[in-house]
Amino acid sequence: MSSQIDHLLNETRRFAPSADFAAAANAHADLYDAAADREAFWAEQARNLHWHTPFTRTLDWSNPPFATWFEDGELNVAYNCLDRHVEAGLGDRVALLWEGEPGDERRVTYAELTDEVKRLANVLTELGIDAGDRVAIYLPMIPEAVAAMLAVARIGAIHSVVFGGFSADSLRSRIDDAGAKLVITSDGGYRKGKASPLKPAVDQALGDRGHGPQETVEHVLVVKRTGTEVNWEDGRDLWWHDLVPAASADHVAQPFPAENPLFILYTSGTTGKPKGILHTSGGYLTQAAFTNKVVHDLHPETDVYWCTADIGWITGHTYVTYGPLANGATQVIYEGTPDTPHPGRWWEIVAKYGVTILYTAPTAIRSFMKLGRSIPEQHDLSSLRLLGSVGEPINPEAWMWYRHVIGGDRTPIVDTWWQTETGAIMVSALPGVTETKPGSAQVPLPGIGLDVVDDQGQEVGNGNGGLLVLTEPWPSMLRGIWGDPDRFKETYWDKFADKGYYFAGDGARLDEDGDVWFLGRVDDVMNVSGHRLSTTEIESALVGNEAVAEAAVVGASDETTGQAVVAFCVIKESYMKANSLDGLVDTLRAWVGDQIGPIARPRDVYIVTELPKTRSGKIMRRLLRDVAEGREVGDTTTLADTMVMSTIKGQVTKKD
Ligand code: WTA
């Protein structure tokens, strides 16, 4: 880590905004002054939304860490993303430029999307979904996914989108935790050149009724996407195409209180059980729309915007569905993988639709770097005028490549730091204002209070590293963990309770200018390809296999994915007596993929005879990380058995 930090601190390249970009930019330096009165600033941003009932109170922070924003105001989130644009005469504007992986296309205008959402809202009501009910959405990246989120929001219900790459088990636990009444899914979606089924995972999740508490799911609404044969449970399963087109397109959006829950999104924490992060309506939409406008410099009349995230992640929620649609943007949505049918697919899409704003993850940029510049160079990328990065620290090399090869040395890059919990971007350069530094996410946005502190909560000051904290409440902050207020307090607020700071779980350093450099997580959360995974969750999956007695998982640095999952497993004596270990490594990798989802599958599994533990029995993951990253093993003096590391090293090297 320290050599990496030194390397980062030697980064001296700077890029000032061009005069042309600055002249037309949505962001201006005076936004920072305007935000000196934080509450007034956010109230002003909130007034860009349509309020059925205007709010009179901005923030109530009298009962921290439970905040309310715009509490006495009422709005309808879907109305803000749809009807108001149609009513303003923009019904013919394209909302979604959708491209399926096989090359099929759909252009959906604001009028058409509004119509579809109204019909679906009527269907949901007919199916008995009321305000406050939970609806699980398990869909590929098709227009219906966006419509489903908005229809649920429109009737004041709460969606829980589950990433289509998660397993039946993961889906089941999310359905149970939220007590979902309805699941919206599809027969499948196209990935890597073939139809990849989704409905079987729903069947498996719901079939095993003894597994969860009492079954809460009454219906499964199924979109036909691939035409793959599906199992059908009469009475429970319903086709979207039977119900939605036949439903009435008359639906008047009702106002809901600003603090009405909008969605739950599960994310990995430091324990085995994912946390249901809860977001509400008015504050969330305010910050989603504001950040999309100033950080992505969105000009909805002229831009073609593309955020490559899946709606299964927070980035897809805020910067595919809510932010851009609240702003009336025209955006590209692509169903498939970046390299299907050829490695230039993304760049072909940029050229085809004339994408002007591209928002993606460092891991994608690094894999394109690996493939070489000759691939993007075959496509006309001259429409691009702004590039964004999200999900993990972007190393200066990848930043420079992104700017040079993809951005033609002309585009500003915004490296945006935020979390599922923060709901929207918190730290970023403002394009047209900030002189950018490759590798640094730079400055808190106007209206955001942030600091880097030591373990006691004392500011570390410029030139030093520590823990990132958010010092003031913000409109799109999480309002809690679904069903677990204690865990909400413990996880984020207890560490600096006396100061009232939110603890983000990220290490960060302030440079001499006070710019923020993110250094990765300080807890047991890994970041693999920009996706959060918990070491404990993967360890519990591993020990759930009949062969494994004990497991320790670490995130090891990886050139492409940022971090990679590396597992060390001790095998049960009884298993070894009865079985050969041939093929066990592959079996265990596949097992984790089945239990959690392919993103959690370890890059390496090492079979070892012991794990390094302190005298009190705590696994020393730091030492295992040294082994996984091929470094000299650090200080072993606190180990119960100081020889164990040389044994492990021997076993790992033998395997290589
Ligand atoms: C990391 C994704 C450095 C960080 C929006 C955070 C980043 C976690 C950046 C949240 C960035 C996200 N620079 N690190 N620009 N963006 N992270 O909840 O560790 O999936 O805590 O939200 O990703 O991941 P999540």
From TrEMBL:
Its cofactor is Mg(2+). Mg(2+) binds at V543, V548. SUPFAM superfamilies: Acetyl-CoA synthetase-like. InterPro entries: Ac_CoA_lig, ACAS_N, AMP-bd_C, AMP-bd_C_sf, AMP-binding_CS, AMP-dep_synth/lig_dom, ANL_N_sf. It holds the Pfam family AMP-binding. The keyword Ligase applies. Keywords: Acetylation, ATP-binding, Ligase, Magnesium, Metal-binding, Nucleotide-binding. Belongs to the ATP-dependent AMP-binding enzyme family. Gene3D superfamilies: 3.30.300.30, N-terminal domain of ligase-like. The modification N6-acetyllysine is found at K618. One of its GO terms (molecular function) is acetate-CoA ligase activity. Its EC number is 6.2.1.1. This is Acetyl-coenzyme A synthetase.
